[in-house]
Amino acid sequence: MQRASDSRLRWASFALLAAIVLHDLDHIRQDRSVEPLVVGIGIIGDIAIITLVVLVMRGHRLAPLAATVIGFANVLGFIAVHLVPDWGPLSDGYPDLPVDALSWVLAAIPMAAALWLALGGWVSLRATRRLA
Fold it and tell me: Is the confidence at residue 93, as pLDDT, over 90?
């Protein structure tokens, strides 16, 4: 049971990392300026995901909790930053911007990967509690 959970978190954390890299590259492709606070949030998120990958690869006991928190935080963050119209300096609202379909897809994929990661972490947490 634990091996299946570890494998699930490994695949989901790598998927989110890959999706975030593609999303970040899309920001470069868009060739437009982004608010510094949005860039800062993105960098913090990238560091959190890289840290999570290390925790998962090492089989650290906090990996399921970190996966749950980082996964849900990324889902909510993408919604707040990209899916809702511009609401301030922490926003890069795609509805108000001339972004193409590829940019929308490359914003949706990380949200799906983050949700997969969050749910996988939550399932792992529950399984760990049952074993304890």
Answer: yes
Question: In angstroms, rounded to a whole number, what is the distance separating the alpha carbons of residues 12 and 74?
Answer: 13
Q: What is the pLDDT of residue 1?
A: 38
- Tokens 């290390």 identify what position? 54
Q: How far apart are the first and last CA of the chain?
A: 13
**Domain that includes residue 36, residue range:** 2-131
pLDDT band at 75 (very low <50, low <70, confident <90, very high): very high
Closest CA to 75 of 29, 5, 16, 21: 16
Higher-pLDDT residue of 53 and 31 is: 53
Domain count, the chain: 1
- The answer to whether the beta carbons of residues 5 and 123 sit under 8 Å apart is yes
